[in-house]
Design a protein that fits this description.
globular, two-stranded antiparallel sheet, eight-stranded parallel β-sheet, alpha/beta, TIM Barrel, 44% helix
């Protein structure tokens, strides 16, 4: 890689397995656009024009290698037929299915994965990607996110955080439906021009080697379609403790995507299992602690973040999900300095 390589050139080389001299800096900055447009998040999520305009403004202030075109945790559930209940504009909605089911069971009457991919907000997301592709003229990478199979299956079956630590709590039917749905939606995103697809798992249960192989197999269709369009698939493990618990079985798999766990100060020892020579398909996400008001916590995490980057030379650097609306872009600029220099 030359010093003047563009993000698109770096992406192509990563897909070919060519190591880069620096990571791609791809923070997820999406819902901040609602603040820029002075809109409630609910309205923002349904307006491709407002999304594209605000993200172009954010791009002018944040010198990142990518633009987060659409990231919403409830997208797939709504596309499958759930009703979103917004209590306040500031808080995420609750999910309500049209037909009641016992916890752990799949509700009746859900849409097929193919029909889900034609949902109203999926269409909005696709349009936002297309507009940003035109507006930004192929300069930065265009990013979009989908839920991982465990995450979407938990939402479908009403599993709470305390339930998802055990693999046997998950319905095989829900996992199969989830994997098929995210494959269909990811296909729409890359067809529209997305260059990076984040597959986001909020929490991963404790996995055996066989469980991990099954998880990888369920993700293979989505990963393959993303790579077919010469885009980069990124499996993002949002909970650092889930990664720490499963790191051994995760690194035994031959992933055809970037594995991108969140880094938390409390779980930094988990990174000792990362090969010292660098894992070819490794990314790193700055955990949510960095965006809390306590400056000392943020500074500690930034130093750990920098130390890991120097040691393992990750392919990408991102954030563990969408950054809070109150995030200061100047702080993200400091994260960029720690990541790249």
């Amino acid at each position: 890689m030359t010093e003047n390589s563009t993000p698109r050139q770096m992406l192509k080389e990563l897909l070919q397995g060519i190591p880069q001299t620096r990571p791609l800096f791809l923070p997820i900055v999406f819902s901040l656009g609602a603040k820029v447009e002075n809109l409630p998040l609910r309205e923002f999520l349904g307006n491709a024009t407002k999304i594209s305009n605000s993200l172009r403004q954010i791009r002018s202030h944040l010198r990142s290698d990518g633009v987060a075109c659409y990231f919403d945790p409830s997208l797939e559930a709504e596309a499958l037929g759930a009703v979103l209940r917004w209590q306040t504009p500031e808080h995420p909605p609750t999910i309500q299915w049209p037909h009641h089911a016992e916890k752990g069971e799949v509700p009746e009457g859900l849409r097929s994965p193919e029909d889900a991919a034609k949902g109203t907000r999926v269409t909005v997301a696709v349009e936002a990607i297309r507009r940003l592709k035109s507006l930004l003229r192929d300069e930065p990478l265009l990013m979009a996110g989908v839920a991982g199979p465990f995450t979407l299956a938990a939402r479908i079956t009403g599993l709470r955080k305390e339930d998802v630590s055990r693999r046997e709590k998950f319905s095989d039917t829900a996992l199969e439906l989830s994997a098929a749905t995210i494959t269909q939606i990811a296909s729409k995103f890359v067809e529209a021009g997305a260059n990076v697809i984040f597959i986001q798992e909020d929490v991963v249960p404790k996995l055996s080697v066989e469980d991990c192989e099954t998880w990888a197999s369920s993700l293979a269709p989505a990963i393959n379609i993303v790579r077919f369009y010469e885009a980069l698939p990124v499996l993002q493990i949002m909970d650092s403790h889930s990664f720490a618990e499963n790191k051994l079985v995760i690194f035994q798999q031959n992933w055809d995507c970037v594995i991108c766990p969140a880094l938390a100060a409390s779980a930094f020892s988990a990174w000792e299992m990362v090969p010292s020579s660098g894992f070819a398909n490794l990314g790193i996400a700055l955990g949510p602690e960095a965006f809390q008001p306590e400056a000392s916590t943020a500074e500690t995490l930034l130093e750990l973040f920098h130390a890991f980057i120097k040691k393992s030379r990750p392919a990408i650097v991102t954030t563990a999900g969408d950054v809070p609306v109150a995030t200061d872009l100047k702080f993200l600029a400091r994260v960029r300095e720690k990541a790249i220099f």
